[in-house]
Design goal:
With 463 residues, this protein is α+β, with helices and mostly antiparallel strands. The protein is built from 15 helices and 15 strands. The chain starts with a helix and ends with a helix.
Length: 463
């Protein structure tokens, strides 16, 4: 079999075969929360996190458990619901992932029980969760990965950015995955819906930035959604096709396949070893006889060189991080939203689920938009503009408010079509549209009024 067919078959098996079934209205929700020590200037105490985890697991049936190299639980799953408690990259970030539900309200009810129990358990140890896109203690925290092969490999890989010169211009926070947090939503897709979903939501990204930005970052907090550049200016962004937005219009499944072939693979697993190597586009990777990589040798506690012979099955380790990401589950995952204030955490899931029901109407609205579009900028450029704190001069703010409400009207219509009474979850976004105030803008305004970061973190963590 020639290389082109090998790549095509491998990608088809992972990404496209799951689309060949009837689409459902199930929605998957993943929420990453910063864990912060409530004592000012103090790092997260990992032993306290482990004790709080044990306390939580004594109350809920998360019986499928995975431990790190030191014996601490970092992932636990409820086999019945497929809900999962995990720590993402480090014990500074706690993630709650939910098995797909048709009714987002049902997911939210389970979330409220879990979150309440976690806050109580963490509170006994002077810690808490909060709904922010950047951990409020990110400067003080121990930036150590979870002690397992995968996360140790990932951080080692990201820290190797200095080997790749100055293009792109990398930032000096390769450990950003240990302190930045997202709210991710997955909606079911099939062969007919996946292309319009990707194209339409790609156009929507600048408007989403206005509503959802919640990770102020930079020397003067000039960026409202610092997560964007933390990803794109890391080694993940060495190949710009691996993260962020699409710079092209996707017209067919073949276009998606071509795009995936152009994304880079940087790690595989062989036996119990996670191996990283210089990123290489997957279409080129499978042509190689071998690549030079590194793995963590537990005995010597050093990274050792090795060679890897590429195999078609390695496509399972392809890790695109697009804002609109086709997954191996037959879903499109929306990845651009920062974690939100906890009492409003499910507004994002409702927003995406509602709009996914009315993609044609949303596309028509965005295609005729003159509020953000029509000023010489494309979707990716506009996203870069709207995540800045300074408003661009060409934006008519009254027109932007009206357009955001039109988008929310479509989302509300879609939720009504779903028939689960999820429309009230959108309420916080109406207020944001009225004031053009994202959680990041509110956060910075409160700091300027003299409120402490700790007080804001406590508020953003209140359910």
């Amino acid at each position: 079999m020639d290389n082109e067919a090998t790549v095509s078959n491998a990608l088809d098996s992972r990404f496209f075969a799951p689309l060949r079934r009837r689409r459902t209205r199930r929605v998957g929700v993943e929420l990453e929360f910063p864990v912060w020590n409530r004592t000012p200037g103090t790092a997260t105490d990992f032993s306290a996190i482990h004790e709080a985890t044990d306390d939580f697991l004594s109350q809920f049936h998360f019986s499928a458990q995975v431990r790190d190299d030191n014996g601490a639980i970092y992932r636990a799953t409820d086999p019945a619901t497929r809900d999962e408690l995990s720590f993402d990259c480090s014990y500074n970030t706690l993630e709650l992932s939910f098995g797909p539900d048709e009714d987002i309200n049902a997911t939210h009810r389970r979330f409220a029980r879990y979150y309440g129990a976690l806050q109580e358990a963490l509170g006994r140890h002077g810690h808490a969760l909060t709904g922010m896109g950047i951990n409020p203690r990110w400067r003080e925290n121990r930036q150590e990965p979870i002690g397992n092969g995968r996360y140790r490999m990932l951080l080692h890989h990201l820290k190797s950015y200095s080997k790749y010169g100055g293009s792109p211009q990398f930032h000096d926070h390769p450990d950003f995955g240990l302190f930045s947090c997202a709210s991710q939503t997955q909606v079911d897709a099939d062969e007919e819906t996946v292309v319009p979903l990707i194209n339409t939501f790609n156009l929507l990204e600048p408007f989403k930035a206005v509503l959802f930005a919640n990770s102020p970052f930079g020397q003067r907090n000039e960026t409202l959604c610092g997560r964007d550049s933390l990803w794109s200016k890391s080694l993940h962004g060495l190949n710009p096709h691996n993260c962020g937005m699409y710079g092209v219009t996707i017209r067919s499944l073949s276009d998606i396949a071509g795009y995936l072939e152009s994304t880079s693979i940087y790690c595989v697993e062989r036996g119990e070893k996670y191996i990283n190597f210089p990123p290489v586009p997957v279409r080129d990777y499978l042509k190689l006889e071998s690549v030079n990589g590194e793995y963590w040798d537990a005995a010597s506690k050093l990274h050792r060189p090795c060679r890897v012979s590429p195999e078609p099955s390695d496509v399972a380790w392809l890790r695109p991080f697009k804002f609109e990401d086709l997954t191996q589950r037959g879903t499109v995952e929306f990845r651009s939203v920062c974690e939100q204030p906890v009492r409003e955490a499910f507004a994002s899931a409702a927003f995406h689920a509602g709009l996914a029901e009315c993609v044609g109407e949303l596309l028509a609205l965005l295609s005729d938009d003159k509020v953000l579009y029509g000023h010489g900028y494309g979707a990716a450029e506009l996203r870069g503009i709207t995540i800045r704190r300074a408003w661009p001069s060409f934006v008519d703010r009254a027109g932007l408010k009206a357009q955001l409400h039109r988008i929310l009207d479509i989302a509300e219509k879609g939720l009504a079509l779903r028939g689960f009474g999820e429309e009230p979850l959108l309420a916080p976004l109406r207020k944001r549209a009225d004031t053009l105030t994202s959680p990041a803008r509110e956060h910075l305004s409160r700091l300027e009024r003299g409120e402490s970061l700790d007080l804001i973190a406590k508020d953003y963590g209140t359910l």
